[in-house]
Amino acid sequence: MGPSKGSFTPLPPVLPVLLTVKAGQRDKSRKTVATYEFDHVVDEGFNVLFSKAANYLDRAVATHNESPETTGQGKTKLVKIPSIVKVYLKPSTNATQKEYICIETSNYSAALTAAWNNASIRRGGQMAYKLELFVYLKRKDGDSNDEAKVVPESTRMLQIDDLAEAPRLTPPTPAVRMPADFRPLDFLINGQIVPMLVNVEQLRALLSGDSQP
Question: Which superkingdom is the protein from (predicted)?
């Protein structure tokens, strides 16, 4: 017989772990990428458990992305973003994905103990119990050529800013072609100096007293 209601068997020093790597959002994912089983010493704490899960996660990503089914154009690959990798615990047999608990250093012991105690509710539940952990990955397009064509947002913004600050180039104004026989001279008209073009040959003729035909 299992323990009576309100009486729980202490958390064992070593727990078997079933790690499931899934793709997509935590509350909607139906895609299982890989599963791994290993033992975890409870007293080693959260950091060791997370490290083990992260190592299996790396293996799952590499195996999935290098498989023939995910290579080539249009296929879906997986991407691991270390800064947002989280490990979730299934607290009970009937818990939905939305009810999974994100394990952290602060709640590590309490979460494991609660899941272990929940297993005692079912007959023989603790004897066959495995610590069910889940890690979720994001998807990305598998065509590396398409990815290479995508310009990073920071680069695009930099290019736009550069264009905004750069002086606009206007086409050069064609130089005014001055007739060969004319030269600019200043004339005093109504007390103001006015530049005007003068026919040099006519001016010479005028000054020399010759008449211009």
Answer: Eukaryota
